[in-house]
Design brief:
43% helix, six-stranded mixed β-sheet, globular, binds nicotinamide-adenine-dinucleotide, alpha/beta
């Protein structure tokens, strides 16, 4: 019975209960939307300065309570405390950046009216959309949703956040922390619950859904939103590649790529899942990264798989690769040992196998030797996903980056864009659409209003049924002149 009214989170490492939170019903969601909508007028009226002050106090409050929040993140996700604290620290940077920069990037933009309309003034206004429904995942339960929450609030919207059912305590804490510092009520609600709560939020009268999670859930949400033409922001999964040229420092690359592949137990949307390495250094690179991976200890360097059902998916990808001729450099067909997955590196894995073509979301990596960077680029781009990539090359890093069909690239680094608040974050293809972070992330939560006003009247009036032949002739002459 309690399952119907509560969502319960458990420690992935021990299975012990961590917390119980309400399973928010569709009726309650509808009520929250009404309240948020009513309160949003006041939030909007505060202007950029007023909201900046409140959001900066929130960032300050969060910075003073990193350890408290990190403890809940660690308990609910199973990740080490230090990883949880790092995630929260980066998220706070985003709150602060969005608060400080919203006024700059969302102020009215003046436009040239053009010669035909020289007697008019023209400007664009950026207006908050209203109430934003934000649906989040569990893997980075603070950093990921904050990319929408902070930017939507800074742009002048009210927010209803539905955290993952695996991390309701983190979501609940975030809501309480905002209410502890914000004098305004009803601006930021947290609605805990499972997929049904997410579906109810999607069907409610919110003005936009900002979703982060798997591509398959993203498609369901987009389908519901299509019925009412509710705009959607989709931050979905990926199978991000690392492209490694022959002129790199192998030790440095191996260490960074290993961390990006296996940190957070491989449960990172922009984590590296496949490596394309120049054949001249493929052997040396494989040996180095395998040696480093063999030193990793599941449960010490990374935690248990947060979502028990993911273990079966990881296992199926490893077994599929093995059945199709993969060779294990590290780990084995038995790498999945609940609640952990041991570090696993495979080579000779076909490109259409599950481990390469689908998101594995575990501490696994495939390595393929390529004859040229052109081949690496083609294989990277062949994916149905296009979230991010890491490129390693002394001479042609940026040139390779410019040919990748994905939303983000780190050159001679890994996932560097996540900690750069001014940079847009998001993917293409089945990795999603729209952007969080940066000016683009702020503009994701506004609509534009074009305002054109008469400055002075001129005799050439063409917006009338009484337009004369002389006016028609003048317009044609002018257009020909302008387009010679
Ligand atoms: P998920 O799709 O299972 O769930 C995400 C959220 O959607 C949860 O809050 C869940 O309750 C909710 N949900 C589930 N079904 C729903 C429905 N029918 N209607 C509305 N809401 C519903 O994803 P997950 O397992 O929580 O997260 C892991 C996935 O998230 C991975 O694919 C990862 O790559 C992706 N991810 C992407 C980014 C990014 O920014 N691109 C960041 C983090 C995670």
């Amino acid at each position: 019975m309690s399952q119907l009214t509560e969502v319960i989170s458990y420690s992935p490492a021990t299975g012990a209960e961590v917390g119980r939170y309400p399973n928010t019903s569709a009726a309650t969601i509808d009520e929250l939307v009404v309240r948020a909508n009513a309160a949003s007028a006041h939030w909007r009226a505060l202007g950029f300065k007023g909201r900046k002050a409140i959001l900066r106090s929130w960032a300050h409050y969060l910075s003073l309570h990193i350890n408290e929040l990190a403890s809940i993140v660690s308990q609910e996700t199973g990740k080490p405390l230090s990883d949880a604290a790092l995630e929260i620290s980066i998220a706070i940077e985003h709150v602060s950046w969005a608060a400080r920069k919203a006024g700059r990037y969302l102020r009215n933009s003046h436009r040239a009216p053009g010669l035909l309309m020289a007697n008019m003034s023209a400007h664009v206004e950026y207006q908050p959309q209203g109430v934003i429904g934000i649906i989040g995942p569990w893997n980075y339960p603070v950093f990921t949703p904050m990319g929408s929450i902070a930017y939507a609030l800074a742009a002048g919207n009210a927010v209803i956040f539905k955290p993952s059912e695996y991390t309701p305590g983190v979501g609940h804490w975030l809501g309480e922390s905002f209410n502890a510092i914000a004098p305004e009520a009803n601006i930021f609600f947290v609605a805990t619950g499972g997929p049904e709560t997410g579906a109810a939020l999607t069907k409610s009268a919110v003005n936009k859904i900002a979703f982060t999670g798997s591509s398959s859930t993203g498609k369901k949400i987009a389908a519901i939103c299509a019925e009412t033409l509710t705009p959607v922001l989709m931050e979905c999964g990926g199978t991000d590649p690392a492209i490694i040229d022959r002129d790199v420092d192998i030790d440095r690359v191996a260490s960074a790529v290993l961390w990006a592949a296996m940190g957070n137990a491989g449960q990172t949307c922009v984590g590296i899942e496949r490596v394309y390495v120049h054949h001249e250094i493929a052997q040396a690179f494989s040996e180095k990264i395998s040696a480093l991976a063999s030193e990793l200890v599941a449960g010490r360097d990374y935690g248990a798989a947060t979502m028990p059902k993911q273990l079966a998916i990881i296992d199926s990808h490893i077994k599929d690769a093995a059945n199709r001729g993969a060779e294990f450099l590290v780990g084995s067909i038995d790498s999945v040992q609940p609640p952990f997955v041991l570090p696993t590196i495979m080579t000779n894995v076909p490109e259409d196998s599950l481990a390469v073509a689908e998101e594995t979301f575990g501490p696994t990596l495939t390595i393929r030797s390529v004859t040229s960077m052109g081949e690496a680029i083609a294989l990277s781009n062949a994916s149905q996903y296009g979230l991010a990539a890491s490129v390693w090359s002394k001479k042609q890093g940026k040139a390779i980056a410019s040919q990748l069909h994905c939303g983000m690239v780190s050159v001679n680094s890994v996932i560097a864009f996540t900690a750069t608040p001014s940079m847009p974050f998001g993917g293409v293809k089945q990795s999603g659409s729209g952007r969080v972070h940066g000016p683009e992330g702020l503009r994701e939560f506004i609509y534009t209003r074009a305002v054109v006003a008469t400055r002075f009247r001129i005799p050439l009036n063409f917006a009338t049924f009484k337009r004369t032949a002389a006016v028609d002739a003048f317009i044609k002459r002018l257009v020909r002149l302008l387009n010679r």
